[in-house]
Amino acid sequence: MPYRTIETFTTESGAAAVATGKDRSRIAASPLAALLSVSLALALLVCPAWGEAKVSSDTIVLRGGTVFDAHTGTMVPDQTIVISGDRIERVIPNSTAFDPPAGSQVMDVRGKYIIPGLIDGHVHITHQLNLAHMTGDEVFPLFLAAGVTSLRDVGDTIMTQKLLARYAEANSGSCPRVFMCSPLIDGSQPFHQDIGWAVPDPEKVPDFVADMAAWGVTTLKLYVGTERPVGKRIIEEGHNHGLIVTAHLGLYSAQDAVADGIDCLEHIWSVFDYIIPDGPRPEGYRSSMDLTTPKAQDLINSIAQHHVRVDPTLTIFRNSLLLTDLEAVWKNPDLAHVPARLQRRWEAHRAGQDLKPETFDLRKREFDKYQELTGILYRAGITILAGTDTPEPYVIPGFSLLDELERLVESGLTPAAALQAATINNAGILKQETQLGSITPGKLADLVVLSADPLADIRNVRQIEQVIRGGIVSDPQELFKLVPTE
Ligand SMILES: [Zn+2]
Questions:
Q1: C-beta neighbour count of 188 within 10 angstroms
Q2: How far away, in angstroms, is 174 Cα from ligand 1 center?
């Protein structure tokens, strides 16, 4: 096989990184790796025969690991995964029966646990960052360092997303895959002026949806000011173009949106807010709501029957309700990896909160209700997604998805179900089930190597040794170096 030319480039943080060819670097992005690669390139010029044997192989073999089967939710011991280029070529039971091809890079992963690359199902790559004078590319390596190899954007400015998605593909050794979304489709006065888009007239929907399809979005996102006539039309037109339609609901009720064929509901509020009993709403009513009323049961049954996915995004609710009470939120150790600009923006937000200590119990019980409802939806057979709303305040890029998995398990999902939410379920809502979401021959080689079993304790998803994205192996410690500190 021909070896690819090695190029060096400079990241936003000023650190050198390497990429070979278009998309298939085998070498983790780090200054040392860059130096080694340049030396290797020079060596190849002098000694092509030696070089060909060492670096031309397109094959990586992960030998002897325990592999998470995202379809069955089980761990399968003693497997060998053969990666060829950016794809999983084979998964072989009984690792000793396989002889790796000459020149392949063999990784001994006995005693390790291999899970599919994680997908964050609710991300904004321009919103919030823009307020901190940042761009998404600056935090992309953080996602990868946390094992998050794909992002499902759920509302941002369209041209910036396109540029960032292109950047991520050109720098695939340090960036996750980006799946684009429309701006937040809203009423005549968009709630978020930076990423909202007014579509108040159903007659304007066909042109708008055709425009979004031409930009290459995967998802159309309805926002709080969208009313039923526009929402229903967006669902119809979106489906005509093969797009997924999701919503953070407001004026358009969950009952109507589900009946009209919406694919997904963002935030637990998009369910919770539509099972509130009619009549007066005393202070703190959310923290003591009965989730078993006929009204609740009817909506839950309808969501299940229509196969609507729900993306609860518990991390953002915990953060916003308990921001000033829980040091685990505002002194999260993962903040060590977050650029100072973004931390200052979050700190300013925290300083502006008026969450009184005497209301802590009430707010805590409100969050408990959101987790209780998440568990009810899961037990009703509804497909749960794992999404975070990063980079909302203290929702740390990448690492917040690991927090979200913990919150889902606290809500009643098994560790396996939580992992399925972040892998095969999220691949499904992106229409990428043939490419992503499980360790299956033919799919893209997006994997995470863990040193401990996440089914024994979901917090073991933090024990990341290597992240593989499209066949490129990265060390989280090297990825951190690519993120600006300021
Ligand atoms: Zn959001």
A1: 9
A2: 24
Dist. CA 124 → ligand 1 center (Å): 6
Neighbours of ion ligand 1 (CB under 5 A): 389
Taking the centre of ligand 1 as the mean of its atom positions, its distance from the CA of residue 316, in whole angstroms, is 9
Please give the full DSSP string across 383-405, using - where no structure is assigned.
PB-----BTSTT--TTHHHHHHH
The model's pLDDT over 280-322, given as tens digits with 9 standing for 90+, comes to 999 899 999 999 999 999 999 999 999 999 999 999 999 999 9
| Beta carbons of 390 and 124 less than 8 angstroms apart | yes
The answer to whether the CB of 219 falls within 8 A of the CB of 244 is yes
Give distance in angstroms: CA of 122 to centre of ligand 1.
6
Q: How far is the CA of 184 from the centre of ligand 1 (A)?
A: 9
Query: What's the rounded Cα separation, in Å, for the pair 111 and 108?
Result: 9
7 Cα to the center of ligand 1, angstroms: 36
The pTM assigned to this predicted structure is 0.89
One-letter amino acid at 292 equals T
Cα angle value 429/174/149 (rounded, 5°): 20
Cβ atoms of 398 and 144 within 8 Å: the answer is yes
Domains of the chain are: 6-41+56-115+451-480 (2.30.40.10), 118-439 (3.20.20.140)
